[in-house]
Amino acid sequence: MGKMSALAVLLLHVSAVCSDSHSLRYYYTAVSALGSRLPEFSIVGYVDNREIVNYNSESGRAKPKVKWMEKVDPGYWEEQTQSAKGDEAVSRHNVRTAMSRFNQTGGFHIVQWMYGCERRDDGSVTGYDQYGYDGGEFLSLDTQTWTYIPTMSQAQITAQKWNSREVQVVERQKNYLENICIDWLQKHVENGREDLERRVQPQVKVSGQKKGDTMMLHCQVYGFHPRAVHVKWMKNGDDVPDYETTHTLPNPDGTYQIRVSAEVIPKEGESYSCYVDHSSLGEPLNVVWEPSNPSVWVTPVVVAVVVIILLAAAIGGFVLYRRKKADYTATSTSDTSSSDAPDNAAKA
After folding, report:
1. pTM of this prediction?
2. CA distance 68 to 188
3. pLDDT greater at residue 219 or residue 36
4. What residues contact 223, with CB distance under 8 A and at least 6 apart?
């Protein structure tokens, strides 16, 4: 399971506080051997970090993960299932191809693919198409030059093939990311608007833990929605330059949590506070840490001391999914298709 922990660094997330932007992303994962506690092949789809669809080689069906995804056309799930089955067959070939590029004949190896699009709050759109092997960068599509860039030397063959005009992979992906993906993103957002755009204000806890001559300050921000949030420590109104932050992790109720910590040497006359900006707030919060009161909970409405048992970070699971096959050729779908995924069929 060591390779799985390496995948955590591949987490992709939106960091802007503004939540008027929306994204549609798919994470494909294929493994070379069973016994890794992972299905041989899986697909997980997200709208704004909300899991909407799941397919894996064990279930053999594409399934909705939120209620509002049942609003799509009746043929959507059958077409998604058939498309995923085709990708599953191709993935077995592509995993073996990737292993051969690295002169590997056995062992556990993982190929990942992440693609998707985003409509930002200013109306601009962007897309991404990225690939990884064994937790490392392998290949990515530069959407400024519309060129596949190999990160590993073993990816050069694939990049040359996909960049050629004869294969037309770039043209098809450009059409998908700029048009088809955006169209489906808009449909999904409309169906799930009540869920995706709900606002839940965060609770904030500041605390201090003595470490020798220094003090470790913690700011726990909990129970907020949407996911995008900005948290930092400040001293006398200025940013603390060095601080540690966790990933923004999901809670079982669909909200999120994050913790930001800073190691300081408190001196008389200095004031430390945790700054929190979130779209649910009219104004950012600035929660002051008091040495005489080592642990304080603050909400945007009232100030209270609250005993809350924080959930462990075992909930970070699905966001580990990142990329897919080292070798893949995309084929275009039409706007009338009931599937929002590109039609992937070619072997390397």
Report:
1. 0.71
2. 8
3. 219
4. 200, 202, 203, 251, 253, 255, 256, 257
Q: In what order do the strands lie in the sheet with 285-289?
A: 238-239, 230-235, 272-277, 285-289
- Measured between alpha carbons, how far is 221 from 231 in angstroms, rounded to an integer? 8
- Token pair, residue 224, equals 């907020």
Instruction: Give the span between the Cα atoms of 69 and 310, in whole angstroms.
Output: 30
Instruction: State whether the Cα torsion 332-336-341-346 is positive or negative.
Output: negative
Tokens of 167: 């294969």
Q: What is the 3-state secondary structure (H, E, C) of the chain?
A: CHHHHHHHHHCCCCCCCCCCCEEEEEEEEEECCCCCCCCCEEEEEEECCEEEEEEECCCCCCEECCHHHHHCCCCHHHHHHHHHHHHHHHHHHHHHHHHHHCCCCCCCCEEEEEEEEEECCCCCEEEEEEEEECCEEEEEEECCCCEEEECCHHHHHHHHHHHCCCCCHHHHHHHHHHHHHHHHHHHHHHHCHHHHCCCECCEEEEEEEEECCEEEEEEEEEEEECCCCEEEEEECCEECCCCEECCCEECCCCCEEEEEEEEECCCCCCCEEEEEECCCCCCCEEEEEECCECEEEECCCCEECCCCCCCCHHHHCHHHCCCECCCCEEECCCCCCCCCCCEEEECC
Q: What is the pLDDT of residues 250-301, one digit of tens each?
A: 898 889 999 999 999 988 889 999 999 999 999 999 999 988 765 555 555 4
| Among candidate residues 51, 112, 54, the one with its CA nearest the CA of residue 315 | 51
Query: Where on the phi/psi map is residue 181: left (φ > 0), alpha (ψ -120 to 50), or beta?
Result: alpha
Residue recorded with tokens 């004949």: 105
Q: How many CB atoms lie within 10 A of CB 280?
A: 15
Q: How far apart are CA 52 and CA 195, in angstroms?
A: 12
| Token reading at 324 | 């897919």
d(CA 255, CA 245): 18
Cα angle for residues 12, 16, 20 (degrees, 5° grid): 105
Closest by Cα among 249, 266, 267 to 258? 249
Residues 76/77/82/84 CA torsion (nearest 10 deg): 110
